[in-house]
Amino acid sequence: xxxxxxxxxxxxxxxxxxxxxxxxxxxxxxxxxxxxxxxxxxxxxxxxxxxxxxxxxxxxxxxxxxxxxxxxxxxxxxxxxxxxxxxxxxxxxxxxxxxxxxxxxxxxxxxxxxxxxxxxxxxxxxxxxxxxxxxxxxxxxxxxxxxxxxxxxxxxxxxxx
Length: 161
Hints:
Blueprint: E1 4-10, E2 15-18, E3 24-37, E4 43-53, H1 54-63, E5 69-82, E6 88-101, H2 105-116
Parallel strand pairs: 4-6
Antiparallel strand pairs: 1-3, 1-5, 2-3, 3-4, 5-6
């Protein structure tokens, strides 16, 4: 079985190309943190090349950029080619079957803008992001689990049986 699951951040903007038969293909590298620290107590990361095809490749290019967080499932593939000097080179990469956007350009830009526009204070750290104000709505079609401010009390006495 050849199955890979990754969660990480893009190290650069995705590159979108088209094959000779006009099939979109995007490539990018994902930085994935290791679960342990090195001898100096620092956490290291692995930088894993990823390739994604067709409509998902176009979506990756349109909605992700450097720093975007993604979850990927796919498979490892190894290929080889001859470089300009005639030397055989080997490439190992993840061919993504599915790319889940854990954040996007707009959500990261909004967070960054809100953080940068926040008045400075002594208690603010780089990890204190302002809360995103959510619009109030009573449209259950958009959010059936919305909290409209009233609590609901349920007891066994209310049951019909």
